[in-house]
Amino acid sequence: MALISGQQYIDRINQLKPEIWIEGKQVTGKLSEHPALKGIISSKARLYDIQVQKDMIDKMSFKTPSGERAGLAFFPPKTKEDLERRRIAIQEWAKSSGGLLGRSPDYLNTILMTFMQSAELLSSQDPKFSQNMLHLYKKATKNDLSFTHTFVHPQVNRGPFQFDFSEDPVAAHITKKTKDGIIIRGARLLATQGGLTDEIIVFPQGGLTDLRFANGFSIPANTPGLKFIARESFDYGKSHFDHPLGSRFDELDSVVVFDDVLVPWENIFFYENIELSNDIYNKSSFFQHTVHQVANRCIVKTEFILGTIQLMIQTINIGGYDHVQEKVADVIVALETMKALVLSSEIQAKIDRWGTMTPAKEPLHAALCYYAKIYPTFSDIIQKLGASGLVSIPGEKDFDSPIREDIDKYLQGANSNAEDRVKIFRLAWDLSMSAFGTRQSLYEQYFFGGPLSLSKRLYLNYYRDDQLNRVKAFLSITDEEEETAE
Ligand SMILES: Cc1cc2nc3c(=O)[nH]c(=O)nc-3n(C[C@H](O)[C@H](O)[C@H](O)COP(=O)(O)OP(=O)(O)OC[C@H]3O[C@@H](n4cnc5c(N)ncnc54)[C@H](O)[C@@H]3O)c2cc1C
């Protein structure tokens, strides 16, 4: 069976030994036992365990042509029912983290599926490159591989018309071609879960003019010369009671450094190719399928936020106030909007040029723009409703100390004991105020390019000639025509 269990994922990731740096120290030993990583690795392991559960396996996987079962994110949909199957599986995995794992393996596995479906595009440079893509997809489904990715140049100078034409640019670029492959030097902005996946997919950012950056490939996370420089972990080693989210779901974001990394020819999908750098995004259905995964995760996340808010309200009995009801209604509107946009994309789905049933782009693009703007308002709502409750949150150790009696008495809720109340408010704090919670807000705004660039792309690509013509026609009606019609 191609599907792996949580333990298999842990064993494999422990054997990999990629070069990860956290707070000035290189991670040595088992990743699954490192204090900054063990929470996220065990949360990911739980995902793999879910997919092999007897009662879940049909929901979470499909039979590949070779008869093995592989994760449903790898499944290329052919019908609208297939899209629905994908939606159910995506949401099922998202439920295990309240949608807080942006990079559950189905995100990149979906991306790989779309690149595989459109692999023919890559033959324009060399037919071997499309074979490389097909081979990677086969290997990934057969071994249930997980991926991270890095698409963007480092944030050095974002001023207008800033191009780094220097001999040794900061952004990852080709320095040499050899009989064994290409040599890459430089850095990429970020890879969430860098080093915690089997491989990393490296694709170019849009709008390139310099051939040296126009490369696409995938390499194992432990490739020599590949380095992940992680930020400080938001898993501070606290208990699940104290940091219910940070202790479980901090995905860690890393700068990716390539110290003269050899990328073998069989791992390359294109190189020094500006046309393919754009075509791979424009001509594949990368956007639609990826955002379909994203929007489904966001639905589950919004449900989790709604549930948390409702628990806070009940705990301190503020549900009777108009403004509280209005704020909850805002979250419900967001939830129903996201659900409607996903369904709309599925209803309007069409077979694309690669034979893949592809959800409609427009509602998904709208969902992406909308969520990037609405998400930060959820934190605001939680803070406005929680008020001081979000800082009156003694920790687990306080409940296990001589002051327990005081806490039990003074921190009780209207409908709960002190321990339950603090648990709920700690969750709300971790969702909206902690380092983990604020990073979630940043993530939802920026992981796909930022609110401004998302809106700009929608403005540029949304077909609206029909609407324009209808208004023009209305304006051109003469009084005589109107009178005749009457
Ligand atoms: C939590 C998190 C996780 C991420 N994970 C990944 C990952 O796994 N893989 C990956 O590839 N990427 C990842 N990203 C990166 C993400 O793709 C970028 O953050 C996004 O593309 C925006 O780029 P930037 O961060 O460099 O912002 P910048 O482009 O530097 O923007 C900074 C500010 O300058 C403004 N600005 C910049 N250029 C212009 C312009 N031309 N016109 C107008 N305003 C401009 C922006 O609007 C913004 O306000 C992640 C980002 C975050 C925050």
Automatic annotation (TrEMBL):
Keyword entries, A-Z: FAD, Flavoprotein, Oxidoreductase
Gene3D superfamilies, alphabetized: 4-hydroxybutyryl-coa dehydratase, domain 1, Butyryl-CoA Dehydrogenase, subunit A, domain 2, Butyryl-CoA Dehydrogenase, subunit A, domain 3
Stretches assigned to the HpaB/PvcC/4-BUDH C-terminal domain: 278-475
Domain of life: Bacteria
Documented EC number(s): 1.14.14.9
EC primary class: oxidoreductase
HpaB/PvcC/4-BUDH N-terminal domain ranges (all copies): 6-269
Molecular function GO terms recorded: 4-hydroxyphenylacetate 3-monooxygenase activity
SUPFAM superfamilies for the chain: Acyl-CoA dehydrogenase C-terminal domain-like, Acyl-CoA dehydrogenase NM domain-like
Entry-linked NCBIfam families: HpaB-1
Annotated protein name in UniProt: 4-hydroxyphenylacetate 3-monooxygenase, oxygenase component
Organism encoding this protein: Pseudalkalibacillus berkeleyi
Lineage, highest ranks first: Bacteria, Bacillati, Bacillota, Bacilli, Bacillales
Gene symbol of the encoding locus: hpaB
